[in-house]
Specification:
Helix content is 37%, strand content 18%. Strands 1, 2, 3, 4, 5, 6, 7 and 8 form an eight-stranded mixed beta sheet that branches. Helix 1 packs parallel to helix 5 and helix 7 packs antiparallel against helix 12. The two termini are 27 Å apart. 38% of the residues are buried.
């Protein structure tokens, strides 16, 4: 973000400091992480991460990298509470890595513990913490949508990405999203809380796609398609899920979802129809309480007054219980059994979108 969004700053500082964001948000699919890593050199990689939050993506990236691949990672995070959460979570992560090395009698601690910094800054100005043309990768996970709709803001942000990247470096954007294109009841869940967005520039609105309209993107970047041989590396196995498929989907589900196109799209593509480099569909086994905590960690929900939160929870619980009852009737293994719907974990559809862009050598 060029200008710090007031809701993002206050809400994320609160949820970052309290631990809500860290505890409730899901991590990212290994396939998506490997797709990013497969583009990078085998060692001495420098990474800049915009909007790092509490380090959920950071840890996924570092944990999946080959030994010694990433030398330095600079996290840029504008919310003070999130920076505090990042420092805490990364301290725990480092301790676990050190213990692993000691337990397995491995040499070369520096290969598993890259230099990690977390700094205040924005997408258009990271400050003096990173030199020009020093980064192999600039990445934003669950964050770039805060750039909003103003194309001049996108221009400034893309100029900063261009400045940071080495020639031939990569810019990656990744989002997790509840997959309303797969199941109507997921749409009901999203509709229930998205009415509270209060004008915040959410990923689903597609405003962030104005980056593709900037002069900087047009002149200096290319959006990578998965068929490009330049992003495939035999160190990793990459695969995709077609839009019409979903993990754990039964033949009955497929038959019933043949008209799934009538469901509302996950992301509005009216501004730009560029497709993700990689789309991964999956399901998370979660309870109602876990789902509610994830929703509560959203900036605009964190900011709600208690009365509105109670109302939202009641509406969500009603939708959840209706779906659980439906599944109970369809599943012979649980028919006739008594249980509290709130504590029952069910498969919840998610989709991950990865956009991978390469800085063109000039």
């Amino acid at each position: 973000m060029s200008v710090r969004h007031p809701i993002a700053s206050s809400a994320f500082s609160a949820s970052g400091a309290s631990g809500l964001y860290e505890k409730s948000r899901p991590t990212y699919p290994t396939k998506a992480i490997f797709q990013i890593l497969s583009c990078l050199p085998r060692n001495e990689v420098e990474v800049v991460e915009f909007g790092s939050g509490t380090g959920i993506f950071t840890r996924a990236l570092l944990s999946s990298a080959s030994p010694g691949q990433i030398k330095r990672l600079v996290a840029i995070e504008p919310a003070e509470g999130m920076r505090a959460g990042f420092e805490k979570s990364m301290k725990n992560w480092k301790e676990l890595r050190i213990n692993d090395v000691k337990r397995n009698n491995l040499d070369g601690l520096e290969t598993v513990l890259p230099q990690i910094e977390c700094c205040d800054g924005t997408f258009s100005d990271v400050g003096l913490s990173v030199k020009s043309a020093s980064a192999d990768l600039v990445v934003a996970a669950q964050a770039w949508h805060w750039t909003g709709k103003d194309i001049s803001v996108h221009e400034k942000c893309m100029n900063e990405v261009f400045r940071l990247l080495k020639p031939g470096g990569y810019f990656a954007l990744i989002w997790n999203l509840k997959d309303r294109e797969f199941n109507e009841w997921v749409g009901k869940i999203r509709d229930c809380y998205e009415v509270y967005e209060s004008g915040t520039p959410q990923y689903r609105l597609g405003y962030w796609k104005n980056l593709f309209k900037t002069n900087r993107f047009k002149s200096s970047f290319e959006l990578i398609s998965l068929s490009s041989s330049s992003v495939i590396d035999n160190r990793y196995t990459i695969s995709t899920t077609k839009k019409s498929e979903h993990p754990n989907e039964t033949k009955k589900d497929q038959d019933e979802s043949s008209d799934r196109t009538v469901f509302k799209k996950n992301v509005d593509d009216s501004l730009d129809r560029s497709e993700p480099t990689l789309t991964i569909r999956r399901t998370d086994l979660i309870s109602f309480e876990e789902l509610y905590q994830r929703i509560l960690s959203k900036s605009y929900i964190t900011e709600l007054d208690e009365e509105s939160k109670v109302k939202l929870r009641s509406e969500l619980e009603s939708i959840w219980n209706e779906e659980v009852s439906k599944r109970q009737k369809e599943n012979s293994d649980i028919q006739g059994k008594s249980f509290d719907e709130k504590y029952l974990s069910i498969e919840f559809p998610y989709v991950t979108h990865l956009y991978l862009m390469k800085k063109i050598d000039q």
